Amino acid sequence: MANISESVPVATDSSRSGLHRLMQRKSSIAFLMTLPLILLIGVLVAYPAGYAIYLSMLNKSMVRFVGLGNFEFLMGRDSFWAVVYQSCLFAVTAVIFKAVIGFVVAHFVHNIPAKGQRKWRGMLLVPWVIPPAMSTLAWLWLFDPSYSAFNWILALFGMDPVPWTGDTSWARFSVILVNVWIGAPFFMIMYLAALKSVPEQLYEAAAIDGANWWQRIWYVTLPMMRNIIAITALFSLIVTFANFDIVRVLTAGGPLNGTHVFATWAFRVGIESGDIPLGAAVSLFMVPILAVAAVFILRDINKRGNEA
Amino acid sequence: MAQVTLRKVVKNYDETPAVRGIDLDIADKEFVVLVGPSGCGKSTTLRMIAGLEEITAGDILIGDQVVNDVPPKDRDIAMVFQNYALYPHMTVYENMSFGLRLKKMPKADIDVRVQSAARILDITELLQRKPKQLSGGQRQRVAMGRAIVRDPKVFLFDEPLSNLDAKLRVQMRTEIKKVHQKVRTTTVYVTHDQVEAMTLADRVVVMNGGNIEQVGAPNDLYHAPATKFVASFIGSPAMNMIPCRLEQAAGALRVRLTDEITFPVPASRTARYQPHLSKSRLLFGLRPEHITEVPRHLEPEQHPFEVTLDVTEPMGQETLVYFTVNGTEICASVNPTAGAQSDARMALAADLSNMHLIDDETGMVL
Prior knowledge:
The complex is a heterodimer. Chain A contains 14 helices and no strands. Chain A is mostly helical. Chain A folds into two domains: about 1-55, no CATH class; about 75-305, Orthogonal Bundle (MetI-like fold). In chain A, helix 2 (about 25-55) packs across helix 13, helix 8 (about 170-195) packs across helix 10 (about 215-240) and helix 12 (about 260-270) packs antiparallel against helix 13. Chain A is flat. The N and C termini of chain A lie far apart (about 70 Å). In chain A, about 30% of the residues are buried. By secondary structure, chain B is of the alpha+beta class. The longest helix of chain B has 18 residues, at about 165-185. In chain B, strands 6-7-8-3-9-10 form a six-stranded mixed sheet, with helices on both faces. A six-stranded antiparallel sheet of chain B has the order 13-12-11-14-20-21. A five-stranded antiparallel sheet of chain B has the order 15-19-16-17-18, with no helix packed on it. Chain B has two domains: about 5-235, P-loop containing nucleotide triphosphate hydrolases (Rossmann fold, 3-Layer(aba) Sandwich); about 240-365, CATH 2.40.50.140. Chain B is elongated. Chain B contains nine helices and 21 strands. Chains A and B meet through helix 9 and helix 10 of A and strand 6 and helix 2 of B.
């Protein structure tokens, strides 16, 4: 008895101070402060992702577990591989053009005197700021086969009308064109920021060393911007690869499924054709492809970051 | 190797004048330092010689060629920048050889030049490193190495030591002088530090407000400044300048600082100062080291006077003492053993053979 009555207060005392100590630890406080974000990510990212994985393993009527059956089915279909090809073509071509155009325009804007530069920066950002679904609608009207502004201009010069969204090759061109128009300003603003961070004296040193305009870009600007170029390209590659709205509004994947990318095809298969598990499987195929790209580019940045 | 000539060179930024028409002849193999306070136009002048700034008016010649419209790369110059401006993504070797590679010089020749420059600067072990892995002093050497390998007609230095700590600055100063003695290339060097200017230069060009105040050998500027600005800018601690009156006294001249303190003007200067008797705004200039404790035997031009000291600053080899005359704070340099004490009376001696008389209206030394 005496032993117990003695040991009880000791136990409560130590457990209270233990809790107190736990609260005092920096890592506990840090965890508590990040908890809202962790919950947010859990609800908005982890749960849908997990649910998509679960869905992708059901049969069409969503009553039977089929394991990897949906994935096997997709691998065997030509239309799936066409979407893979189209997504890669779309993303890679669009990112290359966005990067080149963004780089060139950033140079022009960089060389505008500071007074007028804000105005130009603002105007050039407009395509990026307008909601893509809205601006794509405007492009759709420009591409209209009968009343198209573009075809009207071509007719003025006596040229044949172009089936902007009616022919597979032209439709792919149009979709990429609109994506470049919307995405290039983002590259421009990122490159402009990077250009402004290159010390002016490096260019002066290069000028004295005998470098001409092109050599200054090749030996000074590009190496100094390497990391920004890589990060921007990766970021844009992911967003472009997963693009939905432009393709959906402009061509809805047509003609003859010739412009479908992963997201639009997943929508077509899952929502419009009513096979939700198959649609989930299509969208999950993006994950390994993008993960590989991310690992490659980010590993390179780490390596370069150490030497710069 | 070549001489550099500036003829009535003017630089305006929009409407603001930065350089107001300067003339300067820099001889072949000469080491010239442009010195002045910030905003005096010295860096602009250097950048115009480099071709990094356009010239508003006038001519710049390198050798016999007018280079006003020649781009920097064709002027055959090399420049060392204040923040070194090394290419961060290149190794030291690549940094140094960059200019030569652009000129498509054969690799073997480049290697010979880089190795020899690296030996001069003692950076052979650093050739494969990136600038990030170097200390400030090492980066400075690499920047100089990049200039040396080009074997240019003219070296241009834009405040190259400002980013180094005090000890390293003194060390690199000596290095730069040694390098110049080895390679003997015409050098134009910009600094705001008058000590750097005095120690490095064959000739110092003192600039102020876009004009050249005076050009001369370091000792000439120190002992015979032409203007009030040069007198106050060159020398540390600065020259004392005390408002004074010039008086006639029995066939000789006298400088009156206060009712109590007057000094006779040395006989050799009487004729020179005589015409300025009537001037009202005159300054009496004397450097701190020419005001000392009273020696056992006074030299002919040394004149004793007594003051109350405000502050004493022991520096080791000398003690600086401060006192006030005519509302102006005066600094004097006395022997540490002379027993100077704050708030105490002390007898000092002014060496008038080194005095200056300055017309405060025109700013000219008389």
